[in-house]
Design goal:
single chain, 395 residues, mainly alpha, two-stranded antiparallel sheet, 2 strands, 66% helix
């Protein structure tokens, strides 16, 4: 009989070992990304406030000014670190729940979540206000696990929270909300939802408040050139760099579309190549760990499923159409999907009353794949045509 290759031969590990691996990789990811200095662009999000009138993305800056007064370089760095910390804590909560589920699939997914450049690496490196949408996505998933019979009320509360966070960054409408809707559909049946109408009600409870906030911001939140100049003047003395978030506050949708259209085709192609390769690696991992076959859209009404899928795909298309930092969109969407898949798997295993195992059978290839992904440097906003190999090779 031919002996199975060592990389595909199952090895037995304890959940405690998996936990040590997960937290060790997460710690490495945090240290790796934290050694990169906070850019002036990331700091500039926090100098946008309402002192010169209502403007989009002004909520966090107004809160920071109310707490610590006029922004300084130190307070801006601290603020970005707090933002990154919230994202890390949210993802580690998901990883911990996956480990406690105690199945080979859930533990493999926990390793992927922390080692992926779409996971901890992404939230620590980016530190942008729109990542608060990811925190709410995780909160929704946790809530659906605990409050199964009150999903409509939970979704309404989370929907209002999304609406509030839209005033920190309107991109949450496209980066997180569609995946929150997808999450509801993925876990709906296991959350005690028997038909399509209750699921649709929960989805609408999520969407309506945030969409209303988005419409309000679109109408009243675009800054004038005078407001932008005043915000820059009030941030005088804070090193924001030659290009920062303030430069885009007065951009219209048409301006954003033109910026993307004018971007180098070589850069766009490089981003597509790197993003597609990384997406294929993740999908192969999920298939090898038998996760893909376990996660399905579970709402009874096919119209609900189709509508949510169309909304999610359309949101992703809009991100790529109006934002030039395409690698960030790959990471953002990848992170949201990993969270949705995680809660989908947990819902499936809860439905089958799976008992946590004391010993897990895992393939060495899963662990090696985690080390490979963890060793990749944090993904930049965009990849130049000559940097494809650099982005896909460790260090």
């Amino acid at each position: 009989m031919t002996e199975e290759p060592i990389l595909t031969r199952a090895v037995v590990v304890r959940p405690s070992v998996v936990r040590a691996i997960v937290y060790g990789i997460a710690g490495f990811q945090v240290l790796q990304a934290a050694t990169i200095p906070v850019s002036g662009f990331l700091k500039s999000y926090w100098v946008v406030d309402y002192d010169h009138g209502f403007v989009r993305r002004g909520l966090l800056g107004a809160m920071l000014r109310a707490i610590s007064g006029s922004p300084t370089d130190r307070t801006l760095v601290v603020a970005t670190c707090v933002l990154a910390g919230l994202g890390v804590v949210a993802l580690m909560c998901v990883a911990e729940v996956l480990i406690r589920a105690g199945s080979p699939r859930s533990c493999a997914l926990a390793i992927l979540l922390v080692s992926s450049p779409f996971g901890v690496d992404y939230v620590v490196f980016q530190r942008r206000p729109d990542q608060l949408g990811l925190v709410m996505l995780v909160a929704l998933g946790m809530g659906l696990r605990r409050f199964r019979e009150q999903s409509f009320r939970l979704c309404l509360v989370v929907g209002v929270c999304f609406a509030v966070l839209m005033f920190a960054h309107e991109g949450i409408l496209f980066e997180a909300l569609p995946f929150a809707m997808l999450l509801v559909v993925v876990v709906a049946r296991d959350a005690g939802e028997g038909g399509g109408n209750p699921v649709m009600s929960s989805v609408l409870a999520l969407a309506v408040p945030a969409v209303a906030a988005g419409v309000f911001i679109a109408i009243f939140g675009t800054a004038s050139s005078q407001t932008v100049a005043a915000l820059k003047a009030s941030a005088n003395g804070v090193p924001l760099g030659p290009t920062n978030a303030l430069d885009y506050l007065d951009d219209s949708v048409g301006t954003s579309l033109r910026l993307v259209a004018d971007q180098s085709r070589g850069t766009q192609l490089a981003c597509i190549v790197v993003g597609t390769v990384l997406a294929a690696v993740h999908l192969s991992w999920l298939r090898a760990a038998d996760v893909v076959a376990r996660v399905r859209l579970r709402a009874a009404a096919i119209a609900v499923r189709r509508a949510v899928i169309v909304i999610a795909v359309s949101a992703v298309a809009i991100l790529f159409a109006v934002g030039i930092d395409w690698m960030r969109w790959f990471a953002c969407v990848g992170c949201a999907l990993l969270v949705v898949v995680s809660f989908g798997l947990l819902a499936q295993e809860n439905a089958t009353d799976a008992v946590p195992s004391r010993e897990l059978s895992m393939r060495p290839l899963v662990l090696l794949g985690g080390l490979y992904l963890a060793a990749l440097t944090p993904l930049p906003d965009s990849v130049l045509s000559g940097e494809i190999l650099r982005a896909l090779l460790p260090w």
